[in-house]
Amino acid sequence: MPALLSVDWGTSSLRVYLLAPDGTIDDEREAPLGIMNIGDGRFAAALEAVCRPWLDRHGPLPAMLSGMIGSRQGWIEAPYLPCPVDGDTLARHLTPIPVEGFGPVLLAPGVTVRGPDGVPDVMRGEECQVVGALALSGRRDGRFLLPGTHSKRVEVADGRITGFRTYMTGEAFAALRHHTILGRLMGTEPGDGSGFERGVDAVRGISGAGGLLHAIFAARTLRLFDELPEKEAADYLSGLLIGAELADAPSPGKMVTLIGGEALVDRYDRAAARLGIPVEVAPPACVRAGHLALARRAGLLHA
Amino acid sequence: MPALLSVDWGTSSLRVYLLAPDGTIDDEREAPLGIMNIGDGRFAAALEAVCRPWLDRHGPLPAMLSGMIGSRQGWIEAPYLPCPVDGDTLARHLTPIPVEGFGPVLLAPGVTVRGPDGVPDVMRGEECQVVGALALSGRRDGRFLLPGTHSKRVEVADGRITGFRTYMTGEAFAALRHHTILGRLMGTEPGDGSGFERGVDAVRGISGAGGLLHAIFAARTLRLFDELPEKEAADYLSGLLIGAELADAPSPGKMVTLIGGEALVDRYDRAAARLGIPVEVAPPACVRAGHLALARRAGLLHA
Fold it and tell me: Taking the complete model, does pTM exceed 0.90, yes or no?
């Protein structure tokens, strides 16, 4: 019997898994109904449209939601909890949203932390993935990296998220590639990996924050002098940015657990190998496992 | 009597000064005829359209050209000379372009250098400004900074350009501001300078190349937590990037001479002051003085 709707609701898409109490996927659906694509606040209608067949068959199921759906531009703004936080703390601060035809619909909070400079950082959705990764592995300590538009490096100690740091790696890459001169001499065909590796290797030569503003220009000059094939130039820039992100960590020799989609995790995996950073890859089920863990703590499951 | 057309021809605009042998400006014209706005290679026609009244009055004047007009996308590709180069070397490698109705039309070469990592860097046009700054000041040593879309930091020793470094500061700022999430919470009204100063101050806390990918996210999170006024957010990002560029230099206590437009030079001036970097501002006539110096060395002027 299905017991929970696990809802991963981001900026561009909505993914729902129908889960059994042990986390087995009974069914899943994905729709291009990210929060940016939903007009007039019609979030309930969007969720219902995706879940209707399941509700008809199984009755009013409970749902656990996380991601940008809890942001100011989303359905309801869920609070940011300050670090350190663990699964219990998250489960005690779920935001209920009454939705007809569903059981309890609960929105996970985001997490915030202040850096050493006092500047706040935020995440929404990644905290559930980390809780899921901990649940799946039985571990209580580690460093997690969730690559993406806004990558997150998350530190966990004694079962709690103690801190994290956002890197605009993915979005900076897209902006530089598509909206600066760097894109002009870049091909669109996929590279063979050599450009990516050269980009990662170039990270060791970067002198600091400002050095990155210089280093990215190499993606143009190497092309100008025909010292980098056209199809490798985008990957060179990608390797440079991903490598710079990976290299920016206290005790960089510490094992990193990668959580995310296969293609991007593979890039980070290859970059880490070149930089001598030990990595392991989490199973793809982290979001669902996180939602299940929160649902269990919130008493939604009677397993 | 006018003796030279000094032509500063970049990506988006064409500026021509009618100069007397002593560098006095007899007249000047500017047109939105940058190389990106000229179709079918009609560069001669563009130059003639701008200079026609002067040619009619004074006969076939010689012209010295520099900037992106000498790039692959420009009129004729002028070579890049390797560092070290001085005004004499530049003057010996001018590319002549026969243009009816003009005297000799000469295109200045670009300059190239390899970084410690073997990656080439390039400039086109800035070398003439530096030669001009040296001519105007009578100096033979210094560090010059030419802020812009692609900023250049240029080292000069014994009258020669010995090395330089490009920073994509201006273009990265525009791409991040207009094509990432950072722009969403930014106002368009001008700030009061406080956001810029905070951005510059934040540079000291950046941990390295990857740290910059993190630090820029503060332009969003500070807004999310209402810890930075809307109209200061763009300036915060600007201060962060300009500060990072300025801080990236060997012996950062060395005096820097700023060459460029007033608004941008003022920003760099303020950022340098906060970072404790001594600066002076070059007079605005550097390009013209550079063209005049090259023209004299090339025997175009019989003064």
Answer: yes
